[in-house]
Structure formats: C-alpha cells, structure tokens
Amino acid sequence: MLALRWLSALALIVVLSLLFWRYAHPASIATASRRRAAAARYATHPSAVIALLALLALYVIAALAPWLATHDPIALLPQSFVNHPPSRELLFGTDYVGRDVFSRVLFGTRLSLSIALLATVLSVLLGTAYGLIAGFVGGALDTAMMRLVDAFLAIPRIVLLIAIGALWAPLGVTSLVLILGLTAWFGTSRLVRAEVLSLRERDMVAAARALGARDLAIVRRHVLPNVLTPVIVSATLGVAGVIINEATLSFLGIGISDPAPSLGNIIRDGSPFIATAWWAALFPGLALVITAMAYNLAGDGLRDAMDPRQVDR
Amino acid sequence: MTEPLLSVQDLRTYFRTSAGVARAVDGVSFEIAPNESVGVVGESGCGKSVTSLSLLRLIQRPGSIEPGSKIAFEGTDLLALDDEAMRKIRGNRIAMIFQEPMTALNPVFTVGAQLAEVPRVHSSIGKRDAWARAVEMLGTVGIPDPAERAKSYPHQLSGGMRQRVMIGMALMLSPSLLIADEPTTALDVTIQAQILELLADLRARTAMSVLLITHDLGVVAESTSRVIVMYAGEIVEQADVRELFAKPHHPYTEGLMAAMPRAGTKRERLTVIPGAVPSPYDWPAGCRFHARCPYAWERCEREHPPLYQIGAGHVSRCHLAVEPERRNTPHVPLAAQIGARA
Predict the structure, then answer these.
(1) pTM reported for the whole predicted model
(2) Tens of pLDDT along B71-104?
(3) B58 and A29 in contact by Cβ < 8 A?
(4) Distance from CA of B333 to the nearest CA of A (A)
(5) How much is the ipTM here?
C-alpha cells in the first residue's frame, strides 16, 4: 500500500506541474482571452461539463479512499459475510471470499486512475518525442520510424499487451505502468508527426531559420508549443483507453493480482457469481464505465473547445 | 565603384526530383553595393525567391546550389562556410523578411518575446536587456506605445503592424543586408506605401543594403535605385531604375511595364504577356522568352542570347541589342498563335 500512496502522490505532482506549466508559464499557450473563449466553448457542452465534474469527484474519491473506506479492502470478513448482499453496513455487499466491495472499489479506482495517468504521461512523452524527431528530421529516418509505428499499430493492442505481460509476469504496479505506457504512444507519435510536418513548412520556421535560429530552438519555440493542443486532447482521450486496457489485463489475471484491488480484478472476482451475487461485479463495472466515459466526454469537449475550426456536431 | 557588399557569380540552384532536374536559378550574377537598394522583379516562378533563399543557403532538399556558383559577402565566400558559421551570418549580417507576416510570426508568443529571442540566439545577452532592446526596436519601426504593444500576440495586431514587427525582428542585430521577399504583397496599398517608406528610412539611417524582391514594378520604382529583371531562372535585364523605366530594352521588361495598370489612361482591359513562364524542368532552347516575344525571329530559337551591354550599367539578354531594326516589325507571339489555334 505504501507504493500505491507514493504513486498517487507522484501522479498528482505530474498533473499539477503540467497544469502549472501550461497555464502559469509566462509564455503560455493561450492568451487570457483565448483561454476564456476556449473555456466558454467547453461550457457549451453539458456532457463535457458533467464529465469534468465527474472526473474531479473521482480523483477526490481516489485521493480520500483511505478515509472514505468503511473496511479494510483486503481483510476477509467472517465466513457468514461471504457474498453478502448490499446493506447499510456493506454498501456494495461483499465478494466470494467476504471482502467489502465498496472499499475495494474505492481503492481499485485509486489504483486504476494512478496507473492510467502515469502510463498516459509516459506514452505522451514518448509519442511526442518520437513524432517530433520523425517529422522534423524527415527523409529516410522518418520513413523508417513511421513504418515501425505502422508495424506496432498492426498488432491489436490487447494482443500486444497480453504477449508482453505474459513474458514479463508477474507484473507489479511499476511494470504495469511501463507496459501500458510503452504500448500506447503509437497514435500520439503519428499525430505529432503530422502536425510537425505542417508546422515545419510554415513561414515562421523559415523566418526563424533566416534569423539564424538553431534546429533545437526552432523545435522548442515554434514546433513544440504548437503541437501541445492536439497532444493534450489525445492524451485525455487516451487515458480512457489505458484504463480499459489496464482493467482488461487485470481481468485476465495478467495485471494487478489479488489481493490488491484494481477495477479489473474486482470485476473478475465478482463475475463468476453474477447470477447470485450481482453486486460484486456490477459496482466495480459501473465505476469503470463512469471513469472511462468521463475521460472520453471530457476529451471530446476539450477537442471542440481548443480547436474552433471543428464545427459542433 | 566601391567594393561590393554582396557579389553573386553564376549562381545555379537546381532541384533534383524524380520528375527531373528543375533549374530554378540558372546562372545568375549580380552585385549589391553598401547602402544600395536593389529590386528584383519577375513573374511567379522566375526564380526570384529561390535566388534570395540561396543567398542565405536556406534551400531545402531536394534543392541544392550547384558547384561553380559563388556568393561573396563582406569578403567571405558564403558557400565555403560550414553550417554553424553560416548560421551566424543569418540574422546577424544578412536578414530576411517574408511576404505574409501572419504566418511568419509564432502565434503562441508575444511579439516582444519574439523580437527578444533574436539577439539571444546570437549572443548571451540577458533576458531583460533583450526585452528592452525589443521594445526599443518596436519604437524604431514606428509602432506606437511600444512597451505596451510588445506584450501583444500577433493576432492582436493589424497586418501592417505585424510586418513592422517582422522588419524589427530582422533589424535587431543591425544586419548589413536585408532581403525583403514581397514584403508588401499581403498588405493593402496605403499600408504598402508606409512599409516601403519605413524601409527606405531605415536604410538611410543604418547604412544597410536592401534586396527587394517583388512582382510589382510600382514598388520597385518607388524604393530602389537599381533593378534586376528575372525571367526563367536568368537575369534578362539590369539597369538603373530611371534608365529601365525610360528605356526598357528587353521585350519581357516592356511586357511587364505594359501590363502595369496606369492611372489616367483609358483601357478597357489590361495588356497581358501571352503564355506563361515555361517549366524549369525544360527551359526552351535559344532565348527562353522567344515563344512569348513579339519580335522573336529565327535566331532567337537557335541561339541563347548573352547579356549584351547596351548602356552604362545597363545590360539586356536580347538579340535586339545587335539587330535593333527587328524592333520595327512586331508580330503575334508564338504562344498567342498557339493559344488562338487551340
């Protein structure tokens, strides 16, 4: 549990510093007026606003899990409490070995969110760096790098994850973050490369060159800040995918293993008994659906808000 | 004549593509004296922009400057410099401004930050000093309330203001040569005049030279002392600006002037030069203009004309220099005949 706490603290620091860098840095992406306009556009999507509130609530719940939990998520209750239906004492009932599902869902959400966030940060860093290099250097290197991405994209993500997971087993939190992050960056790299290809042909790059700027300065000042918007949108949508992938792995028994709770393995523990003790699988399932949907809707809202060229559907 | 600031000899910039070799700039030679203002005119695709990018060695693959070309600037052979030494010339000694100031400025930084970045690229000047110089430069290029405007983003400024910012960026390090590639094309006429005036004013104050690239003879007439006319990757005529307007020699120059709309003349339609610039992959043999020329005769199809000296500082790449009587018998150009038949 110590590792968990450490990881969530780290995730929080990463998110806060990203937010700080984006909004408080003097050379921030958007001016105050542009930011207000984007916020206003975001607010016109009720689903996106609800999703954002849901995400905030989820993170608060995850952060406060140790205080909100009514029971120890790992401890077994007495034999008579096995597969106990929801009650005032046991909000979501108990599972097949007599653990409190409510507390497990709280801690499971916490672990799943942390893993997904860290893995997404990793994949965004990797994908952005990879796409930048391929797009900016161009030529044969670009072709080689992108064919490699095509090759990886051709393998269904979940098959890739199962294969790596099986080779790497047993997976801890760190190794799970690594394999999820290392398999999630292909799309980001393509997106970044495409943006870079268009940005590097802009007059501002030619003008910077004509004024003697080095390639590194051009990437840092002209290319990177202008690719951040699509990257942030795709990362937000990406978190949803990573959460599902993590849950899938844990459900299949390759990810987080008992007794530590993750949404995936709680669902797995409950699923054989779904006909008699439906609560043990339903509540973690709902938590998973809500989390993934909130990220998807928030991502859609962000995309519409940050890119005014896209018309509302 | 004093030692030229820039001397270009037999500049050839070719693009080797799968479709063949495009000879975009094909043997161009000219000089620019200190504090001189030289105009380069010609239609789209005649090689003027490639020429200016070649001077800064900013030609991207698959283009390359061919061996045998020579660019001497302030006594240095630019083509012999390594990349790092060339980078130090850019912005520092030779600066360039572009046509569209909206796309040449970075939308995510304030204009002050973009100006301040220029000296920081070339020296270890502190952030605060660089900012102060940026604000000072904004004042120099005629932006009112520079300290406040420096905090604006490009989209908050008008087109003319943005072009002033671009000029300011180019002048941050007092270069001795400013290349202006169509600096006023994207602006409306009154702003255009202001920008040209600003350039002339800055040139008078700083002793820099200006190479002004444009397709607009009016712009050239207003703000340069010498004109180079380019066609199909070559210089076809070069003269003092008054001489050129009074006595254009090359039929292409004549055509360009006839095509200029003039106030006070009643013409229903603008005169045009028939046909279009030929493909750089396959320049015509003989004179490259012969198919569009109203005077062309058999010699023009066969023999590529050299630059004939036809006056003091006036050269023209046209066989009319040696057979001037041909000018009395104009005919319908070949390109127009083909057009009529089709």
Answers:
(1) 0.79
(2) 999 989 999 999 999 999 998 999 999 887 778 8
(3) no
(4) 38
(5) 0.80
